[in-house]
């Protein structure tokens, strides 16, 4: 009896990520307008209609500004016009700061004046009622019809710091953000966007563009990401999101950022929310919607942060510092114990605290005899007394190995400005000689000293463990960006999937035709036919009841294993048919399935597909048994994908070691498994609208070189189809 | 055939945690001295010998101060004496700020002057060389001989803020810490202790006592914890440690803090360090030394923080706020999305975002029609315009349910002092009506407003997720403290453990006599004896080769299962003996073991013991198979312990659901399992010096009510004994 081999497809041809890129040019009038009208401009400081006018003045916006206010001649030094029709020239951007009922008419008038973009502050739309939702829908239709891009409604607006544009009533644009920032922000929530502006003020961080999208009648988070991806000033993109309606657009935007080599750091809420609909299949219950976001964000080369602090620290680090070029980290500390803590954090984050050579250790001990010299390097409290020696020690470290990052802990040594600047000068010199390394220091640092560090490209953190953890996260993200995107597999050919519930044989045959390895099985209507089938296949065989209505065959005694003779098959087939009739009198019985008995050994895995309402078909992989059932240890990818992603899925589950072989079992044929995942992803992509879910369980993976095989499968057709 | 039942012992009698408490009275001269001499006092500001004198002046220390300096008449306004002998009256505390070679003589002179405690700043001891280690040992012996308590050497010293005592050269005691602090600090590292003082200055936090222990010739971290446990002013104890030499003392100190109802938050470095010695047994390799600390800290009711930020946030929270009295949390936000983020964090931390009743939700929507009313309560941006309405909403929430905690997110609403104080007043009113709740707000908060919140017992965090995570951690710690300590099991009776390697039968019999359930097995020297033994036990049986030198019996074909007749047993015994002789000609063969064949079903678990060099015998529990092998999913406890701890161990492994029954398997007999863990812990405690490790694998747990049984066991005698 031969084990079926996985039909390993050649790496499927790459297809371009998308043929129609998101139209970022249409966002230029929004973020780079030559002229701005503020409808509902107010002369009263602090009012929603006043803040953007005041801010345009504050930031010395170089274009034309037209406050629309029937009662004032002037608003914050700009000549007011009584109505939109009176604006003397064409406008690019309209800022709408009037109550909801007047918004549509105002937009029409602005469009007539040539406006190509609008920011709608007004609330009272989809966030309050069904009527509001309808009114918002009209705004969306108007935007599409007139080619006008709309931010909002119910949005806090946008800003382009370098261009002097603040089209927002957020109070945190004063004091003025400095030009020359590196961080682009896209926030779905205005309140959160304002909060982040405040965080940035406190941290001395400036934005390139600051975009809040509000109710997203038109412009959504994906548009903002795509715009920032092509914005030369933006070096890192921070995204806050609650959810996306169009997964494909989000994927496209993230891929644009990856293609531009720009890190995207996403804060997505709803980490623990479980999708409301109870999912029919096993796979669906394992792949909650949030897990889908998590998978898609990583698959597109972006990074999902697990806390606000982590998210913002990454923005800070990419703005002022350099991402580590490799995983080797050097740790320089005035406290041995804190060195251990930093090494803990490095190991947790996947960085390697490479020990120094004996020669380098000797050189360090020549400078300070009781220094810890291995890495972490404990320069001891003597450091402050001999900064030249300290500089020499750091140079010994960096000359020893091309460390991608170096993190220092000064404890309190630099807490006074005088000492702080003396230490800072040492690091500035080091930075000049090592322009590509991630350099961060931690400990007590006065604000002025901190600014000097940052100006020199050295990061400053209060806590040493955070400094190391941030290096690890940057390294991970930078590595994803440096890799070419995974070649995307072409979807397979659409299959002829019946609308009715599929039995095991139908499901396996479909998957087999899609390239998944499955055994040579026969359907037999009678015990006699079963015996003939067994003779064709070769003994020993398995006989199983065949019915789309009986999911747990073993439970009703519907499976007979290891049958060695035609007579045994005949008897077994009769028995299982009888038991099925007794146990499930209403079930549709399609006869019995005769399959070759699989050899012992092999690792049981589970492959699955669910169709996510936002991102489409998602492929799931996990190990059979407790790891999936109890620990929920699964990997997910958006379909279709290539072998590289499939290999990554296999490697990223927590139980991956099982496939490498534990306690003397041989390593499993992970290449056959990867090929099957690719084939399943292509099948799922080609049939996204025909299926609801697929479960291949178990998918048995034999030792390396011996292939793999799907032993059972359930395909649930899309709901609309099954009902037909 | 009957399944052996676990011999469930009655809850073993409680024994007092320790008969000799750590002598905290001896630390009073150190932290509450009436007089202080500074040996090596300097008039040069910033010098090590100058700072403590200047600080005693700064803090207006009310006792006598004697700077010892042969060249100065006065040091920072205190009259100097030329040498120790010239000190005019008895002293309590000596601060030694001179080079190492003079330290011993200075200590002797100070002791002659009545000193009962000393702080030794001097470095050059165990941290630099073997000679230094010897000199330090002399200090330790002197301390014991003269009843003098010594901090250091190589220590940054101690401070007692309320008493005006700063016996430290740490530069961060200026500006002056306010009296009336709540946080006691014990840090093994001076550099880290200074860094924490700086963090405290930045956060507006004050210490009760601040203790750094340096090289720990005498006073160690455990002493500091014990002292703070009995210090009335200290409400929370922050501990930084690198390691303990005496585990029993640390346990005793932590238990003193628990008995006093004081939270202890520990930052322990070395999280990822794996013990250097490769451990002989399976269990040892799973229980690295750091995992032992982790387990012991929790077992003693303390909390181990995973980052500096988490650790310090907990100190801040216990200092200014109230620990949640229960797990119900209310979330009040101006941003719906951030409400979801807070709910995520609550769920992750084990808090329950209890939904409001329909009636309460209606009342909230009466105040703001489009408010999110379920919990999280989204008060919307309207809140600032109607603070009375906001207060009503918060009151509706708190009247609805006895929420243990309530966390607000203001985003930027309170960023200006005026608005900030208006919102703060609302929370202050709420706080007055709900004095026991954990109340924290987050968002942009000016420093003056923050101080007002804190004065009212409301915590302020920058990030909303941190505010929720801190509530969850406090709740966990408070719950541990509120519980009575787990009754500690008495150690069992010492057993007669042979010094040679034990075979399976000897090991199982020893454990059986200690109260672990094990099958009724017989040793047989010959096939004929095996057949007779089987007849006594009853069929079916298992026959296994018996040898202390053959660990993996199955691998050499040394196990025969399910033998139903005497003849089958005879043949099997002959075969396994033959195979063993062939496979391991040098092995000591002790015959064969005849055991009843166990019924199918049951969950395979692993119980183990290792003897930790610091904490003594530790009991390990995990599930058989991949969960232990691949995921390292184990629970650890210091032996001996009672049923409560045993139940907690069983519940805390990640795979605990397996024992509750998955996919139709019945729940396992966890009470029998818990009883076995208790019995094993008592055996381990009674025989700590006789064993190196114990492995009970598999320990089979049958369905509820049907007991459990040890199927195999390895006991490795302590190294010194096995060699004898």
UniProtKB/TrEMBL annotation, chains A, B:
<keyword id="KW-0816">Tricarboxylic acid cycle</keyword>
<keyword id="KW-0547">Nucleotide-binding</keyword>
<feature type="domain" description="ATP-grasp">
    <location>
        <begin position="508"/>
        <end position="544"/>
    </location>
</feature>
<keyword id="KW-0067">ATP-binding</keyword>
<dbReference type="InterPro" id="IPR003781">
    <property type="entry name" value="CoA-bd"/>
</dbReference>
<comment type="similarity">
    <text>In the N-terminal section; belongs to the acetate CoA ligase alpha subunit family.</text>
</comment>
<dbReference type="GO" id="GO:0005524">
    <property type="term" value="F:ATP binding"/>
</dbReference>
<dbReference type="Pfam" id="PF13549">
    <property type="entry name" value="ATP-grasp_5"/>
</dbReference>
<dbReference type="InterPro" id="IPR013815">
    <property type="entry name" value="ATP_grasp_subdomain_1"/>
</dbReference>
<dbReference type="InterPro" id="IPR016102">
    <property type="entry name" value="Succinyl-CoA_synth-like"/>
</dbReference>
<protein>
    <submittedName>
        <fullName>CoA-binding protein</fullName>
    </submittedName>
</protein>
<dbReference type="GO" id="GO:0046872">
    <property type="term" value="F:metal ion binding"/>
</dbReference>
<dbReference type="Pfam" id="PF13607">
    <property type="entry name" value="Succ_CoA_lig"/>
</dbReference>
<dbReference type="InterPro" id="IPR036291">
    <property type="entry name" value="NAD(P)-bd_dom_sf"/>
</dbReference>
<dbReference type="InterPro" id="IPR011761">
    <property type="entry name" value="ATP-grasp"/>
</dbReference>
<dbReference type="InterPro" id="IPR032875">
    <property type="entry name" value="Succ_CoA_lig_flav_dom"/>
</dbReference>
<dbReference type="GO" id="GO:0006099">
    <property type="term" value="P:tricarboxylic acid cycle"/>
</dbReference>
<dbReference type="Pfam" id="PF13380">
    <property type="entry name" value="CoA_binding_2"/>
</dbReference>
């Amino acid at each position: 009896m031969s084990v079926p081999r996985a039909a390993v497809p050649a790496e499927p041809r790459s297809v371009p990520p998308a043929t129609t890129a998101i139209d970022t040019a249409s966002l230029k009038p929004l973020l780079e307008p030559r002229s701005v009208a503020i409808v509902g401009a107010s002369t009263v400081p602090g009012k929603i209609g006043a803040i953007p006018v005041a801010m345009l003045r504050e930031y010395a916006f170089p274009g034309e500004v037209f406050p629309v206010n029937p009662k004032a001649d002037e608003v914050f030094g700009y000549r007011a016009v009584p109505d939109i029709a009176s604006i003397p020239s064409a406008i690019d951007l309209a800022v709408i700061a009037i109550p909801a009922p007047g918004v549509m008419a105002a937009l029409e008038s602005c469009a007539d004046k040539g406006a190509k973009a609008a920011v709608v502050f007004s609330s009272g739309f989809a966030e309050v009622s069904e009527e509001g939702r309808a009114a918002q829908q009209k705004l969306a239709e108007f935007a599409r019809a007139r080619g006008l891009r709309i931010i909002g409604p119910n949005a806090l607006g946008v800003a382009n710091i370098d261009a002097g544009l603040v089209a927002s009533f957020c109070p945190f644009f004063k004091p003025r953000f400095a030009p020359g920032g590196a961080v682009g922000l896209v926030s779905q929530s205005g309140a959160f966007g304002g909060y982040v502006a405040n965080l940035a003020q406190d941290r001395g961080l400036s934005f390139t563009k600051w975009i809040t999208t509000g109710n997203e009648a038109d412009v959504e988070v994906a548009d903002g990401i795509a715009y920032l991806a092509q914005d030369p000033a933006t070096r890192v993109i921070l995204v806050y999101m609650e959810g996306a309606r169009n997964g494909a657009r989000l994927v496209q935007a993230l891929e644009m950022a990856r293609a531009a080599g720009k890190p995207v750091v996403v804060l997505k809420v709803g980490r623990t929310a479980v999708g409301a609909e109870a999912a029919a299949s096993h796979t669906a219950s394992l792949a909650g919607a949030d897990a889908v976001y998590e998978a898609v964000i990583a698959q597109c080369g972006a990074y999902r942060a697990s806390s606000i602090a982590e998210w913002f620290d990454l923005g800070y680090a990419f703005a002022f510092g350099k991402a580590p070029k490799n995983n080797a980290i050097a740790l320089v500390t005035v406290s041995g114990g804190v060195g251990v803590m930093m090494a803990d954090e490095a190991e947790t984050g996947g960085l390697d605290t490479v020990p120094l050579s004996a020669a380098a250790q000797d050189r360090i001990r020549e400078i300070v005899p009781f220094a810890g010299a291995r890495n972490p390097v404990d320069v001891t409290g003597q450091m402050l007394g001999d900064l030249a020696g300290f500089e020499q020690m750091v140079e010994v470290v960096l000359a020893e190995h091309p460390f991608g990052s170096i993190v220092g802990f000064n404890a309190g040594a630099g807490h006074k400005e005088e000492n702080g600047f003396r230490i800072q000068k040492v690091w500035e010199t080091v930075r000049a000689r090592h322009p590509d390394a991630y350099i961060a220091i931690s400990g007590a640092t006065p604000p002025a000293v901190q600014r000097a560090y940052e100006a020199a490209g050295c990061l400053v953190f209060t806590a040493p463990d955070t400094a190391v953890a941030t290096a690890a996260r940057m390294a991970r993200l930078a590595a994803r960006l440096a890799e070419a995107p995974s070649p995307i597999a072409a979807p397979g050919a659409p299959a002829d999937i019946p609308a009715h519930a599929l039995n095991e044989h139908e499901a396996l045959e479909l998957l087999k035709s899609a390239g998944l390895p499955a055994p040579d099985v026969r359907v037999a209507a009678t015990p006699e036919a079963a015996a003939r089938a067994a003779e064709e296949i070769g003994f020993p065989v398995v006989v199983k009841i065949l019915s789309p209505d009986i999911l747990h065959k073993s439970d009703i005694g519907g499976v007979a294993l290891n049958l060695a003779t035609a007579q045994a098959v005949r008897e077994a087939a009769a028995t299982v048919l009888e038991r099925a009739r007794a146990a499930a009198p209403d079930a549709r019985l399609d006869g019995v399935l005769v399959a070759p008995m699989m050899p012992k050994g092999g690792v049981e895995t589970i492959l699955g597909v669910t169709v996510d309402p936002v991102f489409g078909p998602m492929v799931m992989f996990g190990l059979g048994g407790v790891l999936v059932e109890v620990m929920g240890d699964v990997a997910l990818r958006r379909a279709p994908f290539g072998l590289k992603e499939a290999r990554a899925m296999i490697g990223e589950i927590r139980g991956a070691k099982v496939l490498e072989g534990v306690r003397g079992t041989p390593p499993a044929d992970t290449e056959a498994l990867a090929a099957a995942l690719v084939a399943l992803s292509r099948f799922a992509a080609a049939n996204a609208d025909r299926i609801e879910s697929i479960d291949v369980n178990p998918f048995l993976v034999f030792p390396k070189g011996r292939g793999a095989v799907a032993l059972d499968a359930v395909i649930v057709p899309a709901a609309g189809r099954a009902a037909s």
